Amino acid sequence: MEMTEKRRETLKRNNEESNRATREAIKDALFILMKTRDYEEIRITDIIRKSGVSRSAFYRNYYTRDDVLLDGIGDMNDLLIQNFSQNVEENWRNYIQIIRKNRTKFELLIQAHREWFLLDHLNRLCDYSSGTDFASAIPHGYIYNVIIYWVKCGLPGSDDEVVQCFMEACRQNAIIMLNGTIPRENIEKMMEKYQQ
């Protein structure tokens, strides 16, 4: 008996939904385990047990626990990208809301010393074809550093206050980049912190 096109599409859709649910269970399990255990101590067997999926289901989707974590970070990064607009202030507001909503995941990422996974995902947006399009790389590093700094500081301030701080930091950075010099007071502040 020949399978109809409609039946194939239904099976395909069901498989995709099943795979998506499996991946979500695995990612959730890893983040739950990271709340109580050191990342380096978590084994794939622990993730499988916690998620309730089979070993073969795990390996159909991932090879390592880093792959699971990268996928979880990719989800958050996708949210940042999906909400991206031409308005820088609006982008920062969206980032702030997504980070606040996913605070625990960002904190766990930092605790596991895997915060660079976020930068890796952001850098996937760079255009490497020219070899000299540095302008496409600068914002990703900037966004990454600001986000990680803010999370490490405990996410202080209201959304409006934080947006204004981020915008002021963008303005100061633009002035430095355009002038080609770092204001003396910024250097003095850096040196004071370094010497402490």
Could you please describe the fold and organization of this structure?
The protein is globular. Helices cover 76% and strands 0% of the residues. The relative contact order is 0.08. The chain has helices spanning 5-36, 44-51, 55-61, 65-82, 88-101, 103-111, 116-123, 134-152, 159-179, 184-195. The chain has ten helices and no strands.
Shape: globular
Number of helices: 10
| Topology as a string of helices (H) and strands (E) | HHHHHHHHHH
Cα gyration radius (Å): 21 Å
- Please give the number of β-strands: 0
Q: Name the poorly predicted regions.
A: none
Q: How many domains, as an integer? A: 2
**What is the residue-averaged pLDDT?**
86
Distance between the termini: 78 Å
Give the % helix: over 70%
Structural class of the helices, strands and pairings? mainly alpha
How much of the residues is beta strand, in percent?
Answer: under 5%
Main sheet record: none
Looking at this protein, list some descriptive labels.
globular, 196 residues, Arc Repressor Mutant, subunit A, mainly alpha, 2 domains
Task: Briefly characterize the structure.
By secondary structure, this protein is an all-alpha fold. 76% of the residues lie in helices and 0% in strands.
Question: How do the strands and helices of this protein lay out in sequence?
Answer:
Layout: H1 5-36, H2 44-51, H3 55-61, H4 65-82, H5 88-101, H6 103-111, H7 116-123, H8 134-152, H9 159-179, H10 184-195
Helix pairs in contact: 1-2, 1-4, 4-7, 5-9, 7-8
